[in-house]
Amino acid sequence: MSQPATAASEPLTVRRLSLADLPQVMPIERRSFSAPWSLAMFGLEVSKPSGISLAALQGQQLVGYLVCSRYADVWHVMNVAVDPEVRRRGIGTALMNALFERADRPGERYTLEVRPSNASAVALYERLGFGSAGRRPGYYHDNREDALIMWREVR
């Protein structure tokens, strides 16, 4: 699905992701990942009261999303995706910064897993203060690629 020509010129807004957004999320998810989440997985995560799920919009068009869950005393960034047609325009950074605006407190910690082969995502997370803390061997089911484990702590 192509973005309307006007979407790229619209200002970016970030708001809470809702269940009503999932029909726009699913096509981006399928184009972004070789092992995409199911609609049911999104429904479960977006419905958790302890989590933070965000939508990035240009005009009325959803162009990216983030799902982050709270486990004990750690925020786990579960899923971040930007429509492939509008990547490298700061949308992923805007989503992550919106998460930090909502959740950052001194001592807060965040973790995530990312494919080492996804160099642009790894670079984004490093720019945002995440550091590598090891690997999960064979983490990704589609090709058994390891996951790079990254952490960020708020000072």
Automatic annotation (TrEMBL):
It comes from the Bacteria. Its EC number is 2.3.1.266. It catalyses: N-terminal L-alanyl-[ribosomal protein bS18] + acetyl-CoA = N-terminal N(alpha)-acetyl-L-alanyl-[ribosomal protein bS18] + CoA + H(+). Keywords: Acyltransferase, Cytoplasm, Transferase. Residues 12-155 form the N-acetyltransferase domain. Belongs to the acetyltransferase family. RimI subfamily. Acetylates the N-terminal alanine of ribosomal protein bS18. This is [Ribosomal protein bS18]-alanine N-acetyltransferase. It comes from uncultured Solirubrobacterales bacterium.
